[in-house]
Amino acid sequence: MELDFKIHIFCGTTNLCKLIRKSFIKESYTFDCTEVKDRQLSDITKGINYRPDCIIVDKDIDSNFRDEIVNKFSY
Questions:
Q1: N- or C-end of the chain: fewer Cβ atoms within 10 A?
Q2: Is the confidence at residue 71, as pLDDT, over 50?
């Protein structure tokens, strides 16, 4: 049985998303990426209609915003 491991990346630029996506292309993960630039957390998470198993947050995202993301997706 294959697991459907869901990864969601929050980044400051789409270039980072594109680079990371290339490394996941041959893997059997569900992968999605959200560009964070100047958006509210509620706007960003509106389109995420699943529960990610793993979140990756770009180091360049503001630390307060990063904490909000981690708190929202900590189960």
A1: N
A2: yes
Q: How many CA atoms lie within 13 A of 18 on its CB side?
A: 3
CB atoms within 10 A of CB 20: 16
**pLDDT, tens only, 6-28:** 888 888 877 877 887 777 766 77
Annotate 4-57 with DSSP letters as a single string. Answer: --EEEEEES-HHHHHHHHHHHTTS--EEEEEE-TT--HHHHHTT--S--SEEEE
- The Cα–Cα gap between 17 and 9 comes to 7
Joined tokens for residue 56? 């990756």
- B/e letters for 38-65, b = 16+ CB within 10 Å, e = fewer, are eeeeeebbeebeeebeebebbeebeeeb
